[in-house]
Amino acid sequence: MTNQLSDDFFEILGGPRPENPFDLLDAYRFDLCFRQMDSGSVLDVGAYLGDFLKLVISDGREAFGSEINDTRVKLVNSIVGSGVARLGFRNGVLDNFESNSVDNVVCMETVEHIIDDQFAVSELCRVARKRVVITVPYRERVEQILCMHCNSFTPHHGHQHTYDDGSFKQLVPNGWKIVKEKSFAARITRMVRRLLPETKISIPLLRWLDKVVPGSGRWLLIVLEVA
Question: For residues 110 and 91, what is the distance between their CA atoms, to the nearest angstrom?
């Protein structure tokens, strides 16, 4: 690995500071990722407020989570249950999880924050036995801002990379293969979701819109399997 961030950097980040509350678009994204998984246990890398873990636990699956500092780990465990989340994925490292220890590893909107994203993907695959499900921003324009503390330019929102179709080919480790890659949450889908109440048909409707209405989405979905 190169250009590692210090442990102090991750601790200073503190707890989650969501700019927007959890909404129907997040529920749609979680539903899509949940549908990509194989049977068995699940590790949610970057568990944040534990919303995806709640979905996993409600399905009766063995659930694990990871977060990048003690504050966030304690928060997740206070929400979904003690011992579910562990410290992990600082600089992409999952050293609190053994190799081939979890059936499915899910990592949503997290890989783009890791400087060495190829190493990060290899760690996700190392821990997984069956499948790895990843989402990242799609065709995002990564902007640099001048940091008032260090007087140097740094990526806005901490996003280190931008991804397009085919970007993950060079990131997949030996022994793994891409079985699905597509963008989702197109502009019309995002617009319509603002008009919908949260009912049983809302997520299926967003899923249908993404299939029939052309246009690139907000996120890129990548599903990996053992080759």
Answer: 11
- Is 152 exposed, middle or buried, given 0-12, 13-18 or 19+ CB atoms closer than 10 A? exposed
For residue 41, give the nearest of 125, 129, 109, 135 by alpha carbon. 129
Q: Which 8-state DSSP code applies to residue 98?
A: -
State the amino acid at position 52 in one-letter form: F
Backbone angles phi, psi at 172, to 5 degrees: -80, 125
pTM listed for this prediction = 0.91
Q: Which residue numbers in the chain have pLDDT < 70?
A: 1-2, 19-20, 142-158
Domains, the chain, ordered by start: 7-226 (3.40.50.150)
Asked whether the CA dihedral 122, 49, 56, 169 is positive or negative, the reply is: negative
55 in Cβ contact with 49 (< 8 Å)? no
Let me know: does 87 contact 11? Beta carbons within 8 Å.
Answer: no
- Per 3-state DSSP, the chain is made up of helix, strand and coil in percentages (nearest 5) of 35, 25, 40
How far apart CA 82 and CA 66 sit, in angstroms, is 13
